[in-house]
C-alpha cells in the first residue's frame, strides 16, 4: 500500500465552495460562474474573480487608457497647426 495524494471528486470555488467552472485569469484561483465577471482579453473574453476586479489601479485606468490622452492632445496640436498654416 502506497500513499497517494488526495484527489477530490470535484473542484470547488475558493469563495463560495460551489463546483468550480474554471480559474481566474489574473490570480488563477478556482472560481464558479457566480464569483466571476467576464472581461475582454486579447483574443477572447476571460473570467476574472471579484477580488481581482476590486484590486484595480486607481480610477480603473490601465496603461492603454493613459496613452489616449497624450495621443488626443498630439492630434489636437497637429490639427491646430494645420488650421493655422492654411
Description:
The protein is α+β, with helices and mostly antiparallel strands. The chain has helices spanning 50-54, 63-84, and strands spanning 22-23, 30-31, 36-40, 45-49. The strands form two sheets. It has a two-stranded antiparallel ribbon with strand order 1-2. Strand 3 (36-40) and strand 4 form a beta hairpin. The radius of gyration is 23 Å and the shape is rod-shaped.
How would you summarize what this structure contains?
The protein is built from 2 helices and 4 strands. The protein is an alpha+beta fold.
Secondary-structure topology with pairs:
Layout: E1 22-23, E2 30-31, E3 36-40, E4 45-49, H1 50-54, H2 63-84
Antiparallel strand pairs: 1-2, 3-4
Oligomer: single chain
Number of DSSP-assigned strands: 4
Q: What proportion strand? A: 15-25%
Tell me the distance between the termini.
Answer: 89 Å
* Structural class category: alpha+beta
Unreliable residue stretches: none
Roughly how many Å is the radius of gyration? Answer: 23 Å
* DSSP helix fraction: 25-40%
Element order: H for helix, E for strand? EEEEHH
Helix run count: 2
Could you report the average pLDDT, rounded to the nearest whole number?
84
Largest sheet: 2 strands, antiparallel
**Largest sheet, spatial ordering of strands:** 1-2
Shape: rod-shaped
Amino acid at each position: 500500500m502506497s500513499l497517494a495524494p488526495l484527489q477530490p471528486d470535484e473542484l470547488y470555488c475558493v469563495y463560495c465552495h460551489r463546483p468550480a467552472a474554471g480559474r481566474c485569469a489574473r490570480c488563477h484561483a478556482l472560481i464558479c460562474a457566480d464569483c466571476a465577471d467576464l472581461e475582454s482579453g486579447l483574443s477572447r473574453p476571460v473570467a476574472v474573480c471579484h477580488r481581482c476586479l476590486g484590486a484595480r489601479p486607481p480610477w480603473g485606468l490601465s496603461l492603454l487608457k493613459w496613452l489616449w490622452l497624450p495621443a488626443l492632445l498630439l492630434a489636437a496640436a497637429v490639427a491646430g497647426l494645420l488650421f493655422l498654416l492654411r
